[in-house]
UniProtKB/TrEMBL annotation:
Domain EAL: 31-283
Highest taxon, organism lineage: Bacteria
Protein name: EAL domain-containing protein
Length: 289
């Protein structure tokens, strides 16, 4: 059925495909098609990474980048990870895809490290990938194939991995032995308990962008940010704010003790060529761990 949809879409011009599936009311067809195509997409080199700079807010020096995957689908154009990562998770294709992402980010990080660029690479890891029995081996392999100090690789996981707290703790301990850094992404949107969080070997907490966006307009969001920063300090986690879009938001964060961040105010995710231009031009790195 998806093949027929594809055929009709091709016939009527590529740009009409989305319209066509919507007309049919069959978003399911699009999902089915993406799931079906995901299997070959790695072999067909349809994925690529973009890199969003992470900065020390007070100096605006870059100290790292976050790798964000994109899928250049031959018919549908660039597809957002927000759409295809959940599909890859459902079908377990996230495991080979996530491995490719880690290897790609690892290779890139090695090139930059060897060129004297001192920025840390962070890679997003989905819950299913994290819980895969070979995950720690994959990280180990990436580190041994690309010789850079392990603290130059960070893994961003979400609070959802804490649903299986016993297993997650063991995996995190293994990862910490390898020397990589761990962040909790989208913090504040999940349901992790503070007592659990305090026992985990975590380095960074990323304040979810929904709080950051409203931090200067909504007093509740503002006090949530303050509370998260306070908690982070007490539990010895470093704080990172994501989704900084305005100068006022950056100022609010600095005033309240959050000194790292990323967001459109500084830079959107960049292509490899763009980020390299920035990194090679701007030879001052924030000297923070
Ligand atoms: P995330 O890890 O929380 O990444 C932040 C998302 O916010 C990215 O969207 C980024 O482009 C976007 N963003 C950054 N700054 C701003 C800003 O100032 N304002 C706004 N409105 N958005 C901003 P993106 O690239 O579409 O990724 C969405 C999500 O997809 C990610 O959220 C992450 O959960 C997932 N994802 C992306 N790449 C990967 C990957 O390689 N592996 C896995 N497992 N998940 C990934
Ligand atoms: Mg992330
Ligand atoms: Mg996030
Ligand atoms: Mg997110």
């Amino acid at each position: 059925k998806a093949d027929i949809a594809m055929y009709l879409a091709k016939k009527s011009g590529k740009n009409n495909f989305k319209f066509y599936v919507h007309e049919q009311g069959s978003l399911l067809d699009r999902k089915f098609m993406l799931e079906h195509n995901l299997k070959q997409a790695i072999d067909h080199h349809e994925f690529y990474l973009e890199y969003q700079p992470k900065l020390e807010l007070q100096t605006e020096h870059i100290y790292g980048v976050e790798a964000l995957v994109r899928w250049k689908h031959p018919e549908l154009g660039v597809i957002s990870p927000a759409e295809f990562i959940p599909i890859a998770e459902e079908s377990s294709l996230i495991v080979p895809l996530g491995k490719w992402i880690l290897q790609e980010a690892g290779k890139q990080n090695k090139k930059w490290y060897d060129a004297g660029i001192r920025v840390k690479m962070a890679v997003n890891v989905s819950a299913k990938q994290f819980e895969d029995p070979h995950f720690v081996d994959t990280v180990h392999q990436v580190l041994s194939e690309n010789q850079f100090p392990p603290q130059y690789l960070g893994l961003e996981i979400t609070e959802s991995v804490m649903q299986n707290i016993h297993q997650s703790t063991l995996i995190l301990q293994e990862l910490k032995k390898l020397g990589v850094k761990i962040s909790i992404d989208d913090f504040g949107t999940g349901y992790s308990s503070l007592s659990v969080l305090s026992k985990l070997p975590i380095d960074f907490i990323k304040i979810d962008q929904s709080f950051v966006h409203e931090s200067t307009t909504n007093p509740i969001a503002a006090s949530l940010v303050k509370t998260i920063v306070e908690m982070g300090k007490n539990l010895h986690f470093e704080l990172i704010a994501e989704g900084i879009e305005k100068k006022e938001q950056a100022e609010f964060l600095i005033e309240n003790g959050c000194y790292r961040g990323q967001g459109y105010f500084y830079s959107p995710p960049l292509s490899l060529a763009e980020v390299e231009l920035l990194l090679y031009k701007n030879q001052i790195w924030a000297s923070i761990e």
